Amino acid sequence: MKKTVFSLALLATSLIFAQKSEVKDAEDALEVNDFGTAITLLKKAEPLKSELNNRWLSEFYLLKGKAYEMRAFAGNNTLEDIDIAAKAYNNAIELGRDVDEASKKLKVMKQNLVSSAIKDQNKGENVIASDKLYKSYTLNKKDTMYLYYAASAAVQAQNYDKAINYYSKLMDLGYRGIKTQYIATNVETGKEESFQTQDMRDFSVKSGKYVNPKDEVSKSVRGEIAKNMTLIYIQQDETEKALEAIAEAKKESPEDLEILQAEADLYYRLGNIEKYNQIMKQVVNEDPDNPTLYYNLGVSAEQLGDLKGAREYYEKAIELDPELENAYVNLATATLAKEKELVEQMNKLGTSPAENKKYQELNKKRKKYYREALPYLEKVVEINPKNLDALRTLLNIYYQLAEDEKAKKINSQIKELTGE
C-alpha cells in the first residue's frame, strides 16, 4: 500500500513539473508573440493549477491574461477574450503576489481597448466601438464616462435600444460628467494650455513658464442625456417616456434651447399645436438674434410638415446671416418639393386634347416653381462654388427653362470639379 501511495505522489509531482514546464513554455511563446501556442499550453496546465504554489499560480494568471489580451487585439474574439484576460489579471491581484504588475496590465489593457474603440469610431464602425466602450466601463465601473461614451457611440450606430439602456444606467447612477480643466497661459506663446492635473499646472506656473492659472468646470451633461433620451423616445413613439425624459432634462437645463425645441416637436406630434406654438415663441425669445437657431427651427418645422413655418424661419435666418448656405439650400428644396405633386398629376394624364391642355398648364406651374427656386440655388453656388448637389440641380433647372448658356457654364464648373 505504501508503494501505491508513493507512486501517486510521484505522479502528482510529475504533473506539477509538467505544469510548470507548460507555464514556462507559454511564457517563451509569448516572447515571440505566439499567443496561440501560449493559450494551448496554458489550457493544458489549467486542470491542476490549484497544485501550483502562489508564485507559479500568479505567473500562470499573468501569462493567461497576456495571451488572451494579445489574441483579443489581434482581432479574434475581441470582447470574449478581454473578459478572460481581465478575469485572469484580477485572479493574480487576488493572490496578492504581483498586485502592482497585474493592476498595471489591467489598466493598460483598458486603455488599449478604448483606443481601439476610438479607431473604430473614426472608421464609422460605431456598433463595435460602443460594445468596446461598454466593456471598458464594466472592467471598472467607477469609470462611468466610458458608459457615457458607449451610449453616444450607440446613438451614432442608430442602435437606439442600446443607447436608451446605457443612458438609463447613467441617469440611475446620477452621472453628471462634470470635469475640471486646469489651465494656464504659456508665457512664450501667449496661448492658454490645459494640464492633466492641478499639480502639473501649478508646478508649471511656479517654473515661471506659465502665468494666469485658472480652473474651468464643465456643466453637467444630465440635461444632454435626458434630451437625447427624449429624441429617441419621440422616434420610437414612446410618448409618455419622452415627456418624462423632457421633464428631467428641463430640471437640469431649463433654458436649453435644444431641449425646448425637442419638447415643441413632441407636442406638435401629439397634435397640441397651441402648446407647440407657446414653446416655440419661448425658444425664439431666448435668443432672437441667433441665425442658427432660426435655421434649426426651420429644419424642425419642415420635418413636421409645416412648410410655411419652415420658410419663414429660413428667411429669418438669412436675414440675420446672408451667407448661411444651408438655409438657401433648404429654401430651394422646400420650393421644389411642390413640384412632386405636379409631376404625379402630369404622369397620370392621357393624350386627349383636354389632357394635353391640362399637361401644359401643370408644366407652366412646374416651371414657375423652378424660377422661384433659382435665386436660392444661385446664391448657394455663389457662397460655395463647390457644392455639387446645388450645381447639378441648377443645371437641370437651366435645361428645363431653356437657359442654355447658363447651363453650359454650370456644366463646365461641374466637369472641372469632378474631372469628368
Automatic annotation (TrEMBL):
Signal peptide: 1-18
Top-level taxonomic group: Bacteria
Pfam families linked: TPR_1, TPR_19
Protein name: Tetratricopeptide repeat-containing protein
SUPFAM superfamilies hit by this protein: HCP-like (SSF81901), TPR-like (SSF48452)
Species the sequence originates in: Psychroflexus salarius
Ranges for the TPR repeats: 291-324
Transmembrane segments: none
